[in-house]
Amino acid sequence: MNDQLQPLKKQPRAGKSARSGTQDDIVYAHIFDAILEQRLAPGTKLSEEALGEIFGVSRTIIRRALSRLGHEGVVLLRPNRGAVVASPSVEEARQIFYARRMVEQAITELAVQHASAEQLAELRQMVSDERDSFARGDRGAGIRLSGEFHLKLAEAARNAPLVSFQRSLVSQTSLIIAQYESGSRSHCSYDEHNALIDAIEARNAEQAVTLMMHHMDHIDSKLNLDEDSASDDLHAVFSHVLQTRKKSSRSSTSR
């Protein structure tokens, strides 16, 4: 494990922590993104040994990253049995979605008051990137950008506790969708996101909240008990990390 863990070069608009920070920041960001993109299946065992091998870091660093994810409710830390990706029950899913609705309403109302022109432009760019991702068949990137849209909207609300709470809720929602979404899995979130931005830009709080609740209804309507398409194979989920490290290792050897 002597290879230095390097920040991953991702698609535009990826989370900032995936490109910079301490080693546990980077590990945390990779796992968080894998959950947000629904590449990690609920219930997956997060072996410290396997993750340490994948990322080329010590178990202490892995534990710090998993602890942060545990505080956000997306990883379950089990004493003497290791960590697993959270697997919300149906009742827990209902409670999380209820909380998400309440938070989204508050965020939307505050964003109408505080969102700057620059923040609205960033949100529109994220929607454009999201649409492009789905158009080229990169569903994972599209889902991640959809979640990051809601995190960026929370930042525009200028309420730090809501940003922290929203980060946890968005990732937990992604787990619920991975576990319970049914049907064709079609996505039109970018159209709903654009309409929401228009209402916020017009400073129309009532319309913006109505559009946000409709957006949440649309997500909720596609949920049912069903099999997921995520994976519990850590090496497969983080194959891009291993490839990056191998390329870095070969480059260092050839110098």
TrEMBL record:
Occurrences of domain HTH gntR-type (ranges): 21-88
Name of the protein described by the UniProt record: Transcriptional regulator, GntR family
Claim: Plastid is one of the keywords in the record: no
Region described as Disordered: 1-21
PROSITE patterns named among the record's database cross-references: HTH_GNTR (PS50949)
UniProt xrefs under CDD domains: WHTH_GntR (cd07377)
Pfam family, one: GntR
SMART domains: FCD, HTH_GNTR
Keyword DNA-binding appears in the UniProt entry: yes
